[in-house]
Amino acid sequence: MNRVRSIANLNGAPDPEMAEKMRLRMRQEQAELYLKHFTTEQLQALLDFYKTDMGKSILESQSRVSDELAGGIRLVSGEAKR
Questions:
Q1: Pairwise CA distance, residues 15 & 9, whole Å
Q2: Whole-prediction pTM value?
Q3: FRET pair for 34, CA 20 to 30 Å: which of 19, 42, 44, 82?
Q4: Rg (Cα) of the chain, in Å, rounded?
């Protein structure tokens, strides 16, 4: 089954429950990778940085970049179906 279709409801719109499950799974995977590749001190430094105004600004920008990347992936996957 097409993975994109498996997370859509009958109308073809994203299934909010499945999307939330995927977000949580991705966060879990990300946390495991951070633990694998960063020391405790590095992680604390990241947390401290992201509490600053600059850190908050960068997180907001990263969120927009991620959203745009996801949109591009949806566009490409939609084109591939044609």
A1: 5
A2: 0.56
A3: 19
A4: 17
